[in-house]
UniProtKB/TrEMBL annotation, chain A:
Subunit and partners: Homodimer. Interacts with lysosomal protein GLMP (via lumenal domain); the interaction starts while both proteins are still in the endoplasmic reticulum and is required for stabilization of MFSD1 in lysosomes but has no direct effect on its targeting to lysosomes or transporter activity.
A single GO cellular-component term on record: lysosomal membrane
Keywords tagged on the record: Lysosome, Membrane, Transmembrane, Transmembrane helix, Transport
Designated name of the protein: Lysosomal dipeptide transporter MFSD1
Gene Ontology molecular function terms on file: transmembrane transporter activity
Span of domain Major facilitator superfamily (MFS) profile: 42-445
Region (Disordered): 1-28
Family the UniProt entry places it in: Belongs to the major facilitator superfamily.
Organism whose genome encodes this protein: Eublepharis macularius
Catalytic activity field: L-histidyl-glycine(out) = L-histidyl-glycine(in); L-alanyl-L-lysine(out) = L-alanyl-L-lysine(in); L-lysyl-L-alpha-amino acid(out) = L-lysyl-L-alpha-amino acid(in); L-alpha-aminoacyl-L-lysine(out) = L-alpha-aminoacyl-L-lysine(in)
TM segment ranges: 39-60, 81-103, 109-137, 211-235, 264-284, 304-324, 331-350, 356-380, 392-412, 418-441
Biased composition (Acidic residues): 1-17
TrEMBL record, chain B:
Pfam families in UniProt: NCU-G1 (PF15065)
Entry's localization field: Lysosome membrane
Domain of life, source organism: Eukaryota
Protein name listed in UniProt: Glycosylated lysosomal membrane protein isoform X1
Gene source species: Eublepharis macularius (Leopard gecko)
Function: Required to protect lysosomal transporter MFSD1 from lysosomal proteolysis and for MFSD1 lysosomal localization.
Record key words, sorted: Glycoprotein, Lysosome, Membrane, Signal, Transmembrane, Transmembrane helix
One Gene Ontology CC term in the entry: lysosomal membrane
Membrane topology category: Single-pass type I membrane protein
Residues forming coiled coils: none
Length: 522, 429
């Protein structure tokens, strides 16, 4: 990737003449890689977007990958160790929401991304220094700072994706981003232990210094992601100039009270999201002992099966993203995935069947849900609220995860795995209820959430035709009116200019009605 | 739709209600008797008498010789235990312990806790895979000095604690005995409790075993389910200084089954770990009934031990059992099993021995906390079986039922609304 990036930079460096201010993009031929309208360029942007989140996902799971080492070197018990995750989650309950808000209103997407990436880097640095200085509180503080950046960065990542790919490829792009995140987690899980042992060989001893150095090495991925953020910001700015496209957000003013305007469908999507994810992540967190005790797995086997969900979701996410793009019908996919998840939880709880079956199903369902659920938000929210909506979604997801992780630990200690599995099944059931309700709400209100891709396309064409027709009528009227009314200098000049084919300022172009927004978002 | 749902809830609650109802429990009146007919308290013999409607179960716990539990089932309410103390202390104690009237005795069995092994578990915790040179000298429980039971017996909570230390003068512990005698903390204890219908308002103390209601379960882990036909034994090792860095301990239990009977080891794997979190296996040693006889007994335990007095899930110590050995087993020479079953009981009765080891490869089992507690039930009849709690069934029913109800209700609502739309507006074409 680094090579690709360098190549990219070289390409840009040699061919850097700033495009003329108002020149339409078609007039200035650019090479495929540098033309923001061409696929090749967008692929580069996509790669950058994917690696944008790599660092934070890699470092997020550092504690899990080094659990025994952290507990041994820092001399902390499991509860304190889990606090590292809690410290990450808690600030996000609030900040995720503001993250979306800040992107929309304060920083803009580019600066927002850069700032959040910086937070991630600094957080990881503090985390590692905490280990170097043998101060656990400093490590916790590091996780806190890391948390401030982490989730907000994910919001920014999604917003970038929508801004660049709000055409057909959006689901695919979300899928790719997710698999990149999962690759980050998996690579981290498998590599950090090895890095630790190498550093241990190098230093000749274990101890908090070793741990600190290992964590600093892990932090390199964060710096890499920061570089991606900087470069992406540059490309986005450049595309804005060339294409006269807006920054990945809207200029419209949104209020904090936007939350009140969220539709019922959106709230249902939130419920699906929270109830679904709390049955996945805390389960994986507590799963290892489950496989050892119930299915008599060895420790390595248990680790393997516990990470299978991530491993499966990495390659499958883009595939499912593509499928969902191709066929539409998001709600049906979500129902499908929730039912499969429920089945696999029930399987794990009530049978002694080989758990690989259930876990693979879980992995498939998990990747399918991510591809079908997250893009749905874009259907039910006007574009200018997307950042806020996604932020809010992740925020309550974090709240759910933090609360349920604690609850799950307590349930496990007091009532065991069967009850825990039943609890998770109940959560998935709640999610199922929400998605069934969403289906009917959508059906009764005639929403387009569950349309097939074909129908969406047809509708889009219809809408375009309709818009064109209206535009024609409006022009006609205007012309008629113009004929009737004495012409002002202003209108005369405008008419003259438009006949010439000159670019008129935006506010003179016909503002497409809400339908256009809709068609843009599929 | 609301009405519909509440109906379903009622139905579910009723369903739950029927499942929750316990069968009518069996009530026994339990009394404790310490050293019946003897005034000295340097030896321990505890007689527990559990009288039912038309039968009596006698439990005799004793630390004369190896710690032994004797279970005698009689079909009479008036059967009594007789101990001939002079004979019991003589070299030939055969017949010193017996129950009268003799013809009322239907079944008897004995469980003897004979030895505690200590071995180096660094490479493997599997007792049978550990090379012989990794074993430390065995603790022979018969050689322990056991404290007097007198003040460690609670007649209301029906508990008794036998506490012994390996301070024997024989010096059979090799090098380990020196450190042991210096520390003076090496203690082994085992406690016995028995169940009966508890009198109303009895609070349960934090003692090892408290008087339970029948068909209830212990408050503390592993929360074994017990009936009126069983008593619980708690094997506790506390403060014993391990003789190596990776010491694991194992307990040897010998059982005596009357005449033609034999013991059988069963493993019950259950999906239900709600009473003993993360433990999915129950092991039990049941007696296979003789021809046209329904009398049987059991020794039942969960495959877990705990490393703390206030056991929590985090204190779980993995507990492994090994195949039952039925040949070449001997009962420790001095044990009240000999006094009850006769001198040459190996040739007349079925003997079986089983080993149970504590601790797995990863993690220190004992060193850190120096506490280990393992519980088992000894009882007459069929071993108790765990069932799902009502809460589980309720959550399950509501959780799975609601989406279905919603799906049906929603379909109807959608169907109706669509039909209405079509009936009110005629299609234009």
């Amino acid at each position: 990737m680094a090579a690709l990036e360098e190549e990219e930079r070289a390409l840009l460096g040699e061919e850097e003449p700033p495009p003329e201010r108002d020149a339409p993009p078609s007039r200035k031929p650019l090479s495929a890689l540098c033309d923001p309208q061409r696929l090749a360029h967008r692929l580069v942007v996509l790669a950058l977007m994917c690696f944008l989140g790599f660092g934070s996902y890699f470092c997020y799971d550092n504690p899990a990958a080094l659990q025994t080492q952290v507990q041994g070197d820092m001399k902390v018990n499991t509860a304190q160790f889990m606090a590292l995750y809690a410290w990450y989650s808690w600030p996000n309950v609030v900040l995720c929401f503001f993250g979306g808000f800040l992107i929309d209103r304060v920083f803009g997407i580019r600066w927002g991304t850069i700032i959040f990436s910086t937070f991630v880097c600094v957080g990881q640095l503090i985390f590692a220094l905490g280990a170097v200085f043998n101060a656990f509180w400093l490590m916790e503080a590091g996780r806190f700072v890391f948390g401030i950046g982490g989730e907000s960065l994910a919001v920014a990542q999604n917003t970038y994706a929508v801004s660049w790919f709000k055409g057909k490829e959006l689901n695919l792009v979300f899928g790719l981003q997710l698999s990149m995140a999962r690759i980050g987690s998996t690579v981290n899980m498998n590599i950090m232990g090895w890095v630790y042992s190498r550093i241990q060989d190098l230093l000749g001893s274990t101890g908090h210094t070793t741990l600190g150095i290992v964590l600093l090495i892990g932090g390199v991925t964060c710096i890499f992601s920061l570089l991606c953020a900087l470069f992406l910001a540059y490309l986005d700015r450049r595309a804005e100039k060339i294409l006269c496209k807006e920054q990945g957000k809207t200029g419209e003013v949104i209020k904090l009270t936007d939350v009140k305007d969220f539709s019922l469908s959106l709230w249902l999507i939130f419920i699906i999201c929270v109830c679904y994810y709390v049955a996945i992540f805390p389960f994986i967190g507590l799963g290892k002992v489950f496989f050892i005790e119930k299915f008599k797995f060895s420790s390595q086997e248990a680790s393997a099966i516990n990470s299978i969900v991530y491993v499966i979701s990495a390659p499958l996410s883009p595939v499912f993203g593509f499928l969902v793009d191709k066929f539409g019908r998001n709600i049906s996919w979500v129902i499908c995935s929730v039912v499969i998840t429920l089945a696999s939880h029930v399987m794990l709880a009530f049978t002694f069947w080989n758990p690989w079956i259930a876990m693979c199903l879980l992995g498939i369902a998990y990747s399918l849900l991510a591809c079908a659920l997250w893009p749905m938000v874009a259907f039910v929210v006007p574009e200018h609220q997307l950042g806020t909506a996604y932020g809010f979604m992740q925020s309550i997801q974090n709240l759910g995860l933090a609360v349920i992780a604690i609850a799950a630990g307590m349930i496990l200690d007091s009532r065991g795995y069967l009850f825990l599995e039943i609890f998770f099944s109940a959560c998935v059931c709640l999610s199922l209820i929400a998605v069934v309700m969403l289906y009917f709400v959508n059906l009764i209100r005639g929403g387009d959430l569950n349309w097939s891709a074909k129908r969406r396309e047809k509708f889009q064409k219809l809408a375009e035709a309709e818009a064109e027709r209206r535009e024609k009528i409006r022009r006609q009227n205007e012309d008629d009116l113009a004929k009737l009314q004495p012409k002002s200098d202003f209108s005369l000049r405008n008419r003259y200019l438009s006949r010439l084919g000159a670019q008129l300022p935006d506010n003179y172009a016909c503002p497409l009605p809400a339908l256009a927004h809709r068609s843009v978002l599929k | 739709m609301l009405v519909e749902r509440s109906c379903v809830f009622l139905l579910l609650l009723w369903l739950v209600g029927t499942l929750a109802r316990d069968p009518v429990g069996y009530r026994r009146k339990v009394s404790l008797e310490y050293n019946p007919g003897l005034n000295i308290s340097s030896v321990n013999l505890l007689h527990i008498r559990a009288v039912g409607n038309n039968d009596t179960i006698h439990y005799v716990w004793s630390t004369i010789g190896a710690p032994t539990a004797l279970l005698v089932y009689t079909r009479s309410q008036n059967s009594t235990l007789h101990v001939n103390w002079t004979k019991l202390f003589s070299p030939a104690p055969s017949g010193a312990v017996h129950v009268e009237p003799t013809d009322s005795v239907l079944y008897s069995t004995a469980v003897i806790f004979s030895k505690v092994f200590e071995y180096n578990g660094a490479n493997t915790s599997d007792l049978f895979k550990v090379p012989a040179d990794q074993f430390y000298p065995t603790y022979n429980l018969a050689n322990f000095t056991w404290e007097s039971l007198g003040d460690k017996m609670n007649k209301t909570t029906l508990t008794a604690t036998f506490r012994g230390a390996a301070s024997g003068p024989e010096g059979t512990f090799g090098n380990g005995s020196i450190s042991f005698q210096n520390s003076g903390e090496k203690l082994m204890q085992y406690g016995a409790g028995t169940s009966e219908k508890a009198p109303c308002g009895k609070d349960s103390s934090q003692n090892m075993v408290t008087a339970y209601e029948e068909n209830s379960r212990d408050a503390r882990l592993p929360r074994l389910l017990h009936t009126a036909n069983c008593s619980k034994v708690n094997f506790v090792m506390s403060g014993v200084a391990p003789r190596g860095n990776h010491s694991r301990f194992a307990l040897e239990i010998v059982t005596v089954e009357e005449r033609e009977g034999r013991k059988q080891l069963e493993s019950i794997r259950s999906i239900d770990d709600e009473y003993t979190p993360t433990i999915f296996e129950m092991a039990q040693l049941v007696s296979v009934p003789r021809n046209h006889s329904t009398t049987s007994s059991f020794l039942q335990w969960k495959t877990t031990a705990y490393s703390s007095q206030h056991a929590e899930r985090a204190d779980t110590i993995h507990c492994q059992y090994y195949p039952l050995q039925t040949t070449n087993c001997t009962v420790p020479r001095s044990s009240i099993a000999h006094a009850y079953f006769g001198e040459d009981l190996e040739s007349h009765h079925a003997i079986a021995a089983i080993n149970i080891s504590f601790g797995s490869e990863d993690g220190e089992a004992y060193e850190e906390k120096r506490y280990l507690s393992w519980s088992a039930l000894i009882g007459f009849g069929e071993p108790p079986k765990d069932t799902f709690s009502t809460l589980v069934i309720a959550i399950l029913a509501v959780g799975l039922g609601t989406p279905v109800v919603l799906l049906v209700g929603g379909s109807i609502a959608a169907f109706v609304s669509r039909k209405k739309r079509y009936s009110e507006y005629e299609p234009i074409n």
